[in-house]
TrEMBL record:
InterPro entries: ADH-like_C, ADH_N_2, ER, GroES-like_sf, NAD(P)-bd_dom_sf, Zn-ADH-like_protein. It comes from the Bacteria. GO terms for molecular function: oxidoreductase activity. Gene3D superfamilies: Medium-chain alcohol dehydrogenases, catalytic domain, NAD(P)-binding Rossmann-like Domain. The lineage of its organism: Bacteria, Bacillati, Actinomycetota, Actinomycetes, Kitasatosporales. This is NADP-dependent oxidoreductase. Residues 20-337 form the Enoyl reductase (ER) domain.
């Protein structure tokens, strides 16, 4: 088989003025080098579009574990690919499926150590694109969910939240409440994904909706939004409640900011008198988490106890549109570009 000599790559063309649009990106065909010693050639099958790219593109945030993306840079993120060529005697061989962080291109050459093999018996390889390990880690590492807890997940219809409600239930939560911007998505979350109630901010005051859904308060909060939803979550917390702050969608969805902050008013008196804990979660603090998550994800998928909801966008030419769809609310679950 002759190896490909070019790759199509999505790059940032211009700094967006507000939320990203497809016109802010280019999809270009570029030379692809032949694999060198210890290198592997991979053809991507799919990659993930995720809201964190807004922060990286907008230049927001400080202390991030990955670099900002400036005009001319290629985008990156979780991807699933197939090995086309690998060195003899190495850990990979042609035909293997792998995951890696060099999405937003159709093919790449890189050192073998940058790729993680997919077990041959893994039930649904595309589910490995899920970033719900953040939800799992927030519940198990930061919030310490206990059987019988009442759990609130803000931003429940996205890539993390659509699985976190299910995970909370599997870990023993007695009641799981979510939030989303769309009434139609709220119906899907309760009908398909195990949420007991899903609130739609807007119209009626959000704090009032939350008080009705959890009249005795909440024990665990997995916050993906920040802003007024985090404010209301603190106000609804029971004594000893644990709040894991995993995302900041309120800032990433705000066209007036660079996507790097989501201010919230926190009642510090309540935090003190009720012994609440509020802590940010980041996967880099838990190097053992990813392997544990993969094992539990595979087991839950095999048993039919967990669903990976995702919206498919076909073709790399549509990848910039996939990113824009995250901010217009036109997706449900993870947003996956299929090649």
């Amino acid at each position: 088989m002759s190896l490909p000599t070019t790759a199509r790559v999505v790059r940032l063309a211009a700094q967006p003025d507000g939320l990203p649009t497809p016109e802010d990106f280019t999809v270009a065909e570029e030379p692809l080098p032949a694999p060198g010693p210890g290198q592997v050639l991979v053809r991507n099958r799919a990659f993930l579009a995720f809201p964190g790219l807004r922060t990286l593109i907008g230049g927001g945030g400080v202390g991030l574990p990955v670099p900002h993306i400036t005009p001319g840079d290629a985008l990156f993120g979780p991807a699933l690919g197939e090995v086309l060529a690998a060195p003899d005697g190495g850990p990979l061989r042609a035909g293997d499926l792998v995951t890696h962080l060099s999405g937003w291109r159709d093919q790449l050459v890189a050192d073998a150590g940058r790729f993680t093999p997919v077990p041959a018996d893994f039930p649904d390889p595309v589910a490995l694109l899920s970033i719900a390990s953040a939800g799992y880690g927030g519940l198990t590492r930061t919030a310490g969910l206990r059987p019988g807890d009442v759990v609130l997940v803000t931003g429940a219809a996205g890539a993390v939240g659509s699985m976190t409600g299910q995970i909370a239930r599997l870990l023993g939560a007695a009641r799981v409440i979510g939030t989303t911007r769309s009434p139609a998505k709220a119906e899907r979350l309760t009908a398909e994904l195990g949420y007991d109630a899903v609130l739609v901010p807007g119209g009626r005051p959000f704090a009032e909706q939350l008080a009705e859904a959890a009249p005795e308060g909440v024990d665990v909060v997995l916050d993906l939004v920040g802003g007024e939803q985090l404010t209301a979550a603190v106000d609804a917390a029971r004594r000893g409640a644990r709040i894991a702050v995993v995302g900041a969608l309120a800032g990433q969805l705000d066209p007036a900011t660079p996507g790097g902050h989501a201010p919230a008013v926190i009642d510090s008196f309540r935090v003190c008198t009720l012994g609440l804990s509020l802590r940010g979660f980041t996967g880099t603090d838990h190097p053992d988490l990813e392997a544990e998550w993969r094992e539990r994800l595979g087991g839950w998928l095999r048993a039919g106890e967990l669903t990976f909801p995702w919206t498919s966008v076909a073709g790399i030419d549509r990848a910039p549109h996939a990113l824009a769809m995250l901010f217009t609310g036109d997706t449900f679950g993870a947003t996956v570009v299929e090649l």
